[in-house]
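Changelog-adjacent note: as of this version, every example in the card shows the full chain rather than a window. The one below runs 262 residues end to end.
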Amino acid sequence: MQQLEDNFDQSQKPKPQKKDPELLQYLEKKLGGGKVATQKQFLDHDRQVLRFFTRCEDLPFIVHYYLADDTFEIRECHKPNDGRDGFAVYLRRQKLPDRMDVNQPGQNFIGDNYLTCDEITPDSDIFAYGRTYQIEGVDEFTQRFYLQRYGMQFPRGNVRFEQPAEPVAREVPPYNGFGDEEDTKGQMYRLVPQKPKVDFFKAMDNSAKVLRFTARFNTRVPEDLDRRFIISFYLADDTLGIYEPAQKNSGIIEGKFLHKRQ
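Full-length structure tokens:
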């Protein structure tokens, strides 16, 4: 009889129930509880930021992790003439979910799980809204922080840009005889040729200044030994012209031997 009473008492005792973490989190959310006190974390880690130098789709990015409130910020690195819009902040400061799950009709409640600094390792990547950021290095503070707290060694690094290709040297074609030599160069450097630019101040200061030299042929041909030339160098536009004066009984008509040109 005593044994039956003991069995009856044991059967009346409530059985321990298994804890359902999702149900517990749902009830806490529904009752408005479960808030974590972040004041101590803010006071201990205010103005402490972890900096990760990453690369996504061959473009450099800097990922900031604020230890005060466990938020992320992604900045895009630019260099001059990179052809991209110069937005400083690529992703504004916010908490970063560690997975992109969405509740479906009839599906159990899925809590908000956010990425924290202890989940980032030297061999892992940072996932942000469907994009993968590969860690290439960190700054000095981040390296010391992970080594002292978690015993993980991150490589030191910095923003690394791809080296631009060396420009191909352009060979100036020979003068084609049409117009001036500046016109030939203008057709090479621009698709639509433009009028050559003239140094206005140089032209005004040296408008009437001409250097003249007398010269003759350096030859052994008897007919050219007596020929004389006047070489004129115009300082206004750095052009040169050669004029041949008349010589008695030479049979050569005087005139321009070389048109004014550079």
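Structural remarks: The first strand starts at residue 49 and ends at 56.
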